[in-house]
Amino acid sequence: MISGPNAFTVADFCDAYGIRRNSAYLEMKAGRLEYRKAGRKTLIRKVDADAWLDSLPKGNPEPAPAGEA
Predict the structure, then answer these.
(1) DSSP 66
(2) Which residue ranges make up each domain of the chain?
(3) Which of 27, 30, 39, 51 makes the best surface tag, with the fewest CB within 10 Å?
C-alpha cells in the first residue's frame, strides 16, 4: 500500500509544498534542494523535499503586545 508519491516532478513539488517554480529551481541551483534526473525529467524525491522543508528557518512569532492577549 503506497500512501503517496516517492518522487515529485517540479510542478507537483511546487503544488505540494506551496512554492513557485522559479523558487524551486533557485533552491536546486543553490544546492539546498536535491533532485534527480531521469532523461530530461527532473524528479525530487519525497525524502529530499521533506529534508528541504525541515531545513527552512523556523518562524519566530513576536509576542502579543501587552493588553492584546
Answers:
(1) T
(2) 7-55
(3) 39
Rounding to the nearest 10 degrees, give the CA dihedral for residues 45, 49, 28, 14. 100
Contact 2, 36 (CB under 8 A): no
Please give the pLDDT value at position 69: 55
Strands 36-38 and 41-45: antiparallel
Instruction: Tell me the per-residue pLDDT of 16-35, one tens digit each, with 9 for 90 and over.
Output: 999 999 999 999 999 999 99
Torsion (CA) 20, 24, 25, 26 in degrees, nearest 10 = 100
Residue 37: all three cell numbers together:
534526473
pTM over 0.85: no
